[in-house]
Amino acid sequence: MNKELLNKDIPSLLKQIAIPASTGMFFNTMYNVVDTFYAGLISTQAISALSLSFMIFFTIIGLGYGFSSAITALIGNANGKGKKFLASLYAHKGIFFLQILAVLLTLVGFIFSPYMFTLLGATGEYLQTSLDYINVILAGTIFFMTNFALNAILVSRGDTKSYRNTLIFGFFANLILNPLFIYGFWFIPAMGISGIAFATVLIQVLNNIYMLKKVFNTKLVHFENLRYFLPHKKIYKDLISQGIPSSMNMLIMAFGSIILMYFVSLYGVKAVAGYGIGFRVEQLMLLPALGLSSAVLSIVSNNFGAKKYERVQETLNKALKYGFMISTFGILFLYIFGKLIIQQFDDDLEVIKYGLDYLFIEVWIFYAYVILFICVSTLQAIKKPKMILYIALYRQIIAKYLVAVVIVTWLALDYIYLWVGILVMIYSAAIFAYFYTQNMLKKLCV
C-alpha cells in the first residue's frame, strides 16, 4: 500500500481512503446514539450522567485522536523517505507512549472526576450514577488508546478499512451487549448504567485483538525485540511536539461548545433543544469531509517524506474540490429535507424553528469546514502543526466568545444573527488557514 500512496493517481487514492473512513465515522456516531437510547430506557438521570461525563470522555478521545494523528504523520514521513527502521520505531514506541498516557489519564480521572461532577452540580444518587459510568470508562482507557495507536499505524499505510470494520462491528455489538449488561442475562449480573460503559470497554478489547493482527501484517510492529517499545527521548519529543497541537485542538473544541451552549441558553430551553437537534443533523453531513481529512493526512505525509511535492499540492487541491462538491450536495439536501429531519426529533413548532434557523445558516459554513479540516491535516502531515493550536484558539474560544458577547449580550439581536456572526468568524479562520497552508507548502516544497 505504501507504493500506492506514492504512485497511484490522487483522485483514486482519496476515494479509496476517504470512503471507508467516512463510513466508519458514521457508525461511530450511531454508536453514541445507541448509548443515549439505552440510557434513556434506564432513566433521565442516566442520560444526564452520560452528558456530565462528556468532558472527561472527550478528553480521552481528544488526546487519543491528537497523538494518533502525530504517529500517522511521523510514520508516513519516515516511510516516504524510505526509512523503514525509523517508521518501525515510531510505530512501536507510539503504541507504548499512548498506553503510558492512558495510565496517567486513568489515575487523574479516578482522583478528579468526583470533584468535577460535584462542581457541575451532581450530588447524591446523581453523582453516584455518573461515577458508576465514568469509572468503568476510565478503567478501560488503555484499550481506547491502544486502538488509537494501532489505527494510526494502519492509516499511515493508507488503510482506513480496518478501523471502519471495527466501528461497524462496534455498532452492532453495542446493540446486543448494552441490554445484556444493563439488565443482566443468565450468569451476567444487571449492571445498570455501568453496563453501558462495560459494553463499550469490552468492544474496545475485542477490537484491540483484530487491529493488532492487522498491524502485525504491516511488518511495522513485532515482538522480536521488546526494547523497541521502550521510551526514547528523541522519539517521545517528536510525538509530543506533533501531538499536542492536534490534541489541544480537540479539547479546545469541547470548551468552545460549552461557551456557545451558554449563549444559546440565554434564548431559552427551546433554543437549546433546536440547536442540539440541528447540530446532530449537521454533524452527519460533515462526516465525508472528515473522511477526506484522514485521506489527506495519509497521502500527504508519505509524499512529503518522499519529496514528491507536486503530489502534495495535488492532494490538497483535489481534496478541496471534492469537499466543495460534497458540501454543495449537503446544502441542497438539508434545504430540501432539513425540516422533515428535525421534525423526527421534536414536534414542537418553536423548537423546529430554532433548529431550522441554525441549520439554514450553518450549512453555508460547510465550505469553510472543508477548508479547515483539510488544511489542518496538511499541516499535520508536513510536520508543521503549531498553527493548528492558534487557529483553534481563535475560532473556538476568542472570536467565538467575542462574536457571541456582541450579538447576544450587547446588541441583544435575534437568535439567527448569532449564527450569522459565527459564519463570518469561521470563514475568516478558514481563509487564514488556507493561505497559511499554501505559504508553508511554498517554503517547504522546493
Topology record:
Blueprint: H1 2-7, H2 10-42, H3 44-52, H4 54-80, H5 84-119, H6 124-139, H7 141-156, H8 161-183, H9 193-217, H10 233-265, H11 269-305, H12 309-343, H13 349-362, H14 366-381, H15 386-410, H16 415-444
Helix pairs in contact: 2-3, 2-8, 2-11, 3-6, 4-5, 4-7, 4-10, 4-11, 5-6, 5-7, 6-9, 7-9, 8-9, 10-15, 11-12, 11-13, 11-14, 12-13, 12-14, 13-16, 14-16, 15-16
Quick structural summary:
The chain has 446 residues and is mostly helical. The protein has 16 helices and no strands.
Structural class: mainly alpha
Radius of gyration over alpha carbons?
Answer: 22 Å
Low-confidence stretches: none
Helix content: over 70%
Helix count from the secondary structure assignment: 16
* Overall geometric form: globular
- Biggest sheet details: none
What do you see in this structure?
The protein has 446 residues and is mainly alpha-helical. Helix content is 85%, strand content 0%. The chain contains 16 helices and no strands. Helix 3 (44-52) crosses helix 6. The longest helix has 37 residues, at 269-305. It is globular. The model has no long low-confidence stretch (mean pLDDT 85).
Could you list some keywords that capture this structure?
mainly alpha; 85% helix
